[in-house]
Fold this sequence. Notes:
Layout: E1 3-9, H1 12-28, E2 33-39, H2 42-45, H3 51-54, H4 59-70, E3 75-79, E4 91-96, E5 104-108, E6 122-124, H5 128-137, E7 142-144, H6 150-158, E8 164-168, H7 169-174, E9 183-184, E10 199-204, H8 208-214, H9 220-235, E11 244-251, E12 254-262, E13 269-277, H10 281-295, H11 297-304
Parallel strand pairs: 1-2, 1-3, 6-7, 6-8
Antiparallel strand pairs: 3-10, 4-10, 5-8, 5-9, 11-12, 12-13
Helix pairs in contact: 9-10
Bound molecules: ligand PBG.
Ligand PBG binds next to strand 8 and helix 7.
Organism: Zooshikella harenae
Cofactor: dipyrromethane
Keywords: Porphyrin biosynthesis, Transferase
Amino acid sequence: MKTIRIATRKSALALWQANHVKQQLENVYPEVNVELVAMMSQGDKLLDAPLAKIGGKGLFVKELEKALLSGEADIAVHSMKDVPMEFPEGLCLPVIGQREDPRDAFVSHCASSLNELPQGAVVGTSSLRRQCQLLMHRPDLKVNFLRGNVNTRLGKLDAGEYDAIILAAAGLKRLELEARITDYLSPNNMIPAAGQGALGIECREADTELKNALSVLHDSETAACVTAERAVVTFLKGGCQVPIGAYATLHHDKLSLTAIVAEPDASKVHMSEIEGDISQAKLLGETVAKDLIKQGAGDILQKLLENWTNPLDKK
Ligand SMILES: NCc1[nH]cc(CCC(=O)O)c1CC(=O)O
C-alpha cells in the first residue's frame, strides 16, 4: 500500500478531522503517502435549509460514499454522530477512534451558564435533541433556528442574533475555539447525540489490507459505547435529525447507558438507563430503546418521521 486517499468535505471541521487521521496514519506508517480528496457534499450546498425539511439522513455522508464506491478515494472520516445507521453495499465502518469530549457547550456573551440566562432569552440551535433538553430545564427560553458551519454559528451569535448558542464541545476544540466555550453542559442535563465526540473511518468492505492497516486507530472502549448509543437510535429507527440523546460510559467492563426521547417542546420526556457488561453493548442499547417505546417514545417519533412503524409491533 503506497497511498491512502481520504475523501473529505471542505468545511473547516471536516478538513481538521481528515487531517487528524492523515497525521495519525503518517505517524504509524511513515512510508505511506496520505492524500486528501476534498469535495462539496449535498449537505453543504443546502446548508441554509432546515435539515429536518430536506429530510436527508446522512446528507453529508452520501457524496463521500460515492467517492469510495467509485474508487476516487479509499477512506472517509466521519463524526460518528453524523453517520447513518446503515451503510451502502460494499462499504463498512471498521474503525472508531478514541472519543474526545462528548459534551455540548454553552456559548454566550450575556450569561456565564444556562441557568444564568435571563428569562425568555433566545438560544440558537437546530437540533431537536438540544431544543427539547433546553426547554426541559428552562421552559421560558425561546429556541430559534440556527444552522451552518461552526464559524457561521459563532458569527451569528456575535452579531447579536441570539443570547446563547449550543454547539458540540468536540467541534469547538478541534477548531481551536475552546476559548469560546462559556460553560460545559453536563451529559446528565444535556444527553449528547449518539457517537458525539468520536470519529469513525469508512472504507470498502473488500479492502482487507487497508482495514488491517487502519485497525491501529480503533479504540474498542469508545466503540462499545458508541455501539450501545447507536443501537438505541437504530432500534428507534431514528436517523440523525430526531429528538434522541444517547450516552454511554465505561467503568472497567461495566457499561452505563442513558437515553432520552422527548417532544421537541419538552411537553413529554421519556428517559431510560441501564447498566451491563461491555460485551452486551448492542443489546443494552436495544433494551433501552424498547423501554423508551414502552413509555411512549413511539408516539413522538411517529409524529416526526413519516412511515415510522413501532419495532415492538408484531409483523
Ligand atoms: N452536526 C454537525 C456536527 N457534527 C459533528 C460535530 C461536532 C463534533 C462531534 O460531535 O464529533 C458537529 C458540530 C455541532 O454539532 O456543533
